Amino acid sequence: MRYLLLPLGLLAVTPAQAQAPGAPPLQLAEVFRPHHDIAHYLVSEKLDGVRAYWDGRQLLSRGGYPFAAPEWFLAGFPATPLDGELWLGRGRFDELSAAVRRYEPIDGEWRQIRFMVFDLPASELPFEARLAALERLFAGLSSPWLALVEQQPVTDRAGLAARLDEVEAGGGEGLMLRHRHSLYLAGRNEDLLKLKRHQDAEAVVLAHLPGQGKYEGLLGALLVQTPDGRRFRLGTGFSDEQRRRPPAVGSTVSYRYRGETAAGLPRFASFLRERRDQPEPPR
């Protein structure tokens, strides 16, 4: 196996999965912090799915690439833009990711998938009013492939912790909090928050670092860089197959961690998955 080792001082990486020109203007979540006032938010489960944006005509990935969804899957979708996630169920992300990235969709796979909708991005109403509008919209739809994500109020931190315990005990990933009175704003902001026991983030792969000992001849670690320029090694969380065929240099990966070191680097960082917005090429 060959590894790509690059001089860090001269490195310039263009991600292999850069956004398409038509990438949708999605709202992205900040991390929940103790100073946030829970009373201002509605809470839902954080789904371990693939983010998707229905623009009224086609279903787009976060990067702006069309999903090759079957026509029958989309037949009952409204002309109104919708923000949500494609979902197979708890703990089934890898199956889902493989299914939705195919150039040629497999009906049997898509019949298990649901488009879980949590927002109405073209609306200029505050979130609670957008949610009411979504409920009215869904009352007139008959598609079995569309579902509205349930939003619940939580009045105090004890209730929030209990809800998080409940979701995680059932194999869920965490919680999302949406500010009741917020407008839909593209980009990362505190009107949308995520809450998990473990934090996660994304980074671009800069280089493959060779393994030693039992990993000799395989990947030892990925050298990665965060969007704000921090670089570190990501050496745990890989399967043997992933060490044989690691994410490509320039690709984007997700990692899990527990807080940060005094130097501002992720503590106990562990590889989670490769982010893939583009469909797989035909084989």
Question: Care to give the gist of this entry?
Answer:
The protein is α+β, with helices and mostly antiparallel strands and 283 residues long. Helix content is 17%, strand content 30%.
Task: Explain how this protein is built.
The protein is built from six helices and 15 strands. By secondary structure, the chain is of the alpha+beta class. The strands form three sheets. Strands 1-10-9-2-8 form a five-stranded mixed β-sheet. Strands 4-3-5-6-7 form a five-stranded mixed β-sheet. Strands 13-12-11-14-15 form a five-stranded antiparallel β-sheet.
- Give the low-confidence spans: 1-19
- Mean pLDDT comes to 88
- Strand order within the widest beta sheet: 1-10-9-2-8
Discrete helix count:
6
What are the secondary-structure elements, in order, as H or E? EEEEHEHHEHEEHEEEEEHEE
How many E strands? 15
Question: How far is the N terminus from the C terminus?
Answer: 22 Å
Structural class comes to: alpha+beta
Overall 3D shape: globular
Percent helix among the residues? 10-25%
| Main sheet specs | 5 strands, mixed
> Whole-number radius of gyration?
20 Å
State which percent range the strand residues make up. 25-35%
